[in-house]
Amino acid sequence: MFHFMESLKVISQIIGIASIVILIFGSVHAIVVFLINELQRMGGKYDLGKIASIRIQLGQYLLLGFELLIVSDVIATIVEPTIDELIQVGGVVVIRTVLSFFLNREIEAQKKHESTQSLHN
Q1: Chain-centroid distance, C-alpha 75
Q2: CA 24, CA 29: separation in Å to the nearest integer?
Q3: How far apart (Å, rounded) are the C-alpha atoms in residues 119 and 52?
Q4: Which contiguous run of DSSP H or E holds residue 4?
Q5: What tens digit of pLDDT does each residue of 14-60 get?
Q6: 14 Cβ partners below 8 Å, 6+ apart?
Q7: How far apart, in whole angstroms, are the C-alpha atoms of residue 77 and residue 62?
Q8: 103 contacts: CB under 8 Å, gap ≥ 6
Q9: pTM above 0.85, yes or no
Q10: Nearest-CA neighbor of 62 among 102, 116, 100?
């Protein structure tokens, strides 16, 4: 049983690290694409719609990263279920769930806006 619990702890840490890598990658990607778009402004090729696209892509990376962080926290709590851990994970899950809900709403609203814009053009 000891090896199984230790394995779960390692799996939880790996998932946590993967989620952080996804968050960092998504952020760096958004920054790079944003900077390229801003540099194109000098050449007159600035695309305001690109900003909305960047936000949608970043939001998707954030959602994936947050969901994996929740998985990591749940596994860690299963391994060491203290009251403090349970309260902490519960609070984190609530915060991340609310954040995910609003990010999803914003992403869907932006997608609808983009589709209506493309119909009008």
Answers
A1: 19
A2: 8
A3: 17
A4: helix 2-42
A5: 999 999 999 999 999 999 999 998 888 888 777 777 888 888 889 88
A6: none
A7: 22
A8: 59, 62, 63
A9: no
A10: 100
